[in-house]
C-alpha cells in the first residue's frame, strides 16, 4: 500500500506540458471570448455577447490563444474533447469612437464614467471629453487570458496586434489611435483597522502594494496620462490571501483604468517584449 501511495504522489508531481498557438478569432470562439470578457466585467451592465460578436467580426485585428493540435493529439482519447474549443486568451482593439453607436460600446463608456465618479474633477472632465469626442480616435484594448497562462505569451500577441493595426491603417481603416484605453485586473491589500483607529500612530503608513493579474500590463503605467481604480470586491466571490504586508489580511480585487497616448503604444510593446519575451532556445 505504501508503494502505491508513493507512485500516486509521483504522478501528481509530474509537470504537464501544453503548447499554445495564437490565431485570428473565428465564429466558434464566440463562447470562449465571452467567458473571458465576463471575468473582466463581472456583474457590470455590459452586453458581453455583443462585444464578443464585435471582436469576432473584426477578426483581422487581434488573436485568440488556443491549444495546439499536436497537444490535442497527445491527450487521452477517452477525455472530453472540450479543450479543442477552449479559448485560453484573447487580445483585440475596439475603436470606441468609430463604434460609438453600438450598444455595448455605449455601455462601456457609461460604466467608465460612472466608476470615475469619485475621481478628481479634472480626471472626470478629461475622461468625459475623451469618451465623447468625435475628433479623437480612442481604442479600447482587450487583453484577457486564463490566470495560469504566463505573461511571456503576451509579447508575441502584442507584436502581432501592432502589425495587424498597421496593415489595417494602410487600408484606410480607423486603427490609428489618438488614445488607447485599457481596463486591467489588479489586487490591492486590505489593511487592518489598526491604522484607521490610530493605534499605530508612530508607524509609517505602508506603501500601497498592487499586483497586476496580467503582469505585463504594469508596463502601461509609465505612459498613462489618466488612471484610476475602482473596487469590484462586491462582485467577486473570494479575495486572494498571501504574504504581502504584515498589516494586510488579504488582497482585494480592483479594476485599474489606464489611458495612454497612441504614440506611446509602441514604447509599451517594446517594454513588454524586453521584459516578457521567451528566451530563444
Describe the protein.
With about 280 residues, this protein is of the alpha+beta class. Helix 7 links the parallel strand 4 and strand 5. Helix 2 crosses helix 3 and helix 7 packs antiparallel against helix 8. It is globular, with a radius of gyration of 21 Å.
Outline, from the CA principal axes? globular
Note the main sheet: 8 strands, mixed
Strand % is 15-25%
Identify low-pLDDT runs: 7-16, 238-248
- Average pLDDT score: 84
Rg from Cα: 21 Å
Q: Please trace the helix and strand order, writing H or E for each element.
A: HEHHEHEHHEHEEEEH
What share of residues is helical?
25-40%
Number of helix segments? Answer: 8
Distance between the termini: 43 Å
Structural class by sheet pairing and helices: alpha+beta
Please provide the count of β strands.
8
Would you spell out the secondary-structure blueprint of this structure?
Layout: H1 2-12, E1 20-23, H2 30-41, H3 48-57, E2 63-67, H4 69-74, E3 89-95, H5 103-115, H6 121-132, E4 138-145, H7 154-170, E5 179-191, E6 211-212, E7 226-231, E8 248-261, H8 265-276
Parallel strand pairs: 4-5
Antiparallel strand pairs: 1-2, 2-3, 3-4, 5-6, 5-8, 7-8
Helix pairs in contact: 2-3, 7-8
